[in-house]
Design a protein that fits this description.
The chain is α/β, with parallel strands linked by helices. 27% of the residues lie in helices and 18% in strands. The chain contains 11 helices and 13 strands. Strands 3-2-1-4-5-7-6 form a 7-stranded mixed sheet, with helices on both faces. Strand 2, helix 2 and strand 3 form a beta-alpha-beta unit.
């Protein structure tokens, strides 16, 4: 293969790719899921369909300047069974063994409650074998202890590192999505990105102009597409106007819509004039829906709305069934957050294009 410069492991549908494009860069992504690969190809992202955990690193030596990875998170996610939390000690052991030059993944995998848990260690295997100039990793917050461990191991071979949790709403996404990140660089200090937004905004002072408030679902979606009933009940009567029409057709009822994520009484609800909660589309796919302020169901969230709330264009070419499309969206790194993290590594990232 030709020199990839930037390698994206478990590449997903293109969240990191879109973030790189915002900086004028491209990458080669390794992804095993055929529907995800189809989405990437349709979106114009260079892709190798392969299992990153089985892919050899030797052919890539000397060709990778930047390494990106978002290992599958289902085993650690609050939306799943969290078997990965039980497996974290085995992941720590695998990381220590790799740092000592011993690959014990095959021996440790049968002991895992979920064999996918060890995928969170794969980025370290690539990093130690390829020694890229910079690294950017993303996972659910439960993986932060492993990222902190990985950061210490990378520091031991010459990297400046930072590991912590970032809220995507602080970087312009209309969603309060929290994710763990590890940033590492061999050429400059690794620092977290500076927020571009704040909860409620911040006032200007002697040190700057302040930050705008978090973006809301209303900011990015307008009134959700559908039909607004201005009088009458839900089934008969009343005057109907499209919510995509001019402002005089957007009624108070539509503006009172809330997004509900989950089917339990304690399910998260957010008003249209707030950011969305973290979008989870596993088994709860059909439980992400719009409701009235009184809790009456209106309709399910659409693929286009979910894509926009995750920071993708509404026309992004998702492949596969409706379920597969929602899963891809929910698992993707939001492009605005990806771009912010990559900018924090500049000029190391930008030197890849030189």
């Amino acid at each position: 293969m030709t020199a990839p410069h930037v390698l994206d492991l478990f590449a997903g549908p293109g969240g990191w790719s879109q973030g790189l494009h915002a900086l004028g860069l491209r990458e080669v992504g390794i992804e095993v899921d055929r529907f995800v690969c189809a989405t990437r190809v349709a979106a114009g992202h260079t892709t190798i369909r392969a299992d990153a955990a089985a892919y050899p690193t030797a052919p890539l030596r000397g060709k990778v300047s930047g390494l990106i990875a978002s290992p599958p998170c289902q085993t650690y996610s609050a939306a799943g069974l969290r078997a990965g939390n039980t497996d974290l000690p085995l992941c720590h052991q695998a990381a220590d063994d790799l740092a000592r030059g011993s690959d014990t993944r095959a021996e440790l995998r049968p002991a895992c409650a979920d064999p996918r848990s060890l995928l969170a260690v794969e980025p370290l295997r690539y990093a130690l074998d390829l020694r890229p100039d910079w690294i950017a990793l993303e996972e659910v917050p439960a993986v932060l202890p492993l990222f902190e461990h990985t950061a210490r191991l990378l520091a031991g071979v010459g990297y400046s590192t930072w590991a912590g949790v970032l809220n995507a709403a602080d970087f312009g996404l209309a969603q309060t999505r929290r994710r763990a990140f590890l940033i590492a660089s061999r050429t400059r200090p690794a620092l977290p990105p500076e927020p571009t937004h704040a909860d409620g905004g911040t006032a200007a002072d002697l040190f700057g102009d302040g930050l705008p408030a978090w973006r809301t679902m209303l900011d990015v979606l307008g009134c959700p597409p559908g039909v607004v009933i201005t009088r009458g009940n839900h089934t008969t009567g009343g005057s109907r106007f499209p919510t995509t029409g001019p402002s005089w057709a957007i009624t108070g009822r539509a503006r009172s819509w809330m997004l509900k994520v989950g089917n339990r009484p304690s399910a998260t609800r957010r008003r249209l004039d707030q950011p969305a909660p973290t979008l989870l589309f596993g088994k709860a796919l059909n439980d992400v829906s719009w409701i009235d302020s009184d809790g009456t169901p209106v309709r399910r969230l659409t693929v286009e709305e979910a894509a926009i709330l995750q920071g993708f264009p509404a026309t992004y070419p998702w492949a596969g069934s409706r379920t597969k499309q929602f899963q891809q969206i929910g698992n993707a790194v939001p492009p605005p957050l990806a771009a912010a993290v990559l900018r924090s590594l500049a000029p190391a990232v930008l030197e890849v294009a030189a």
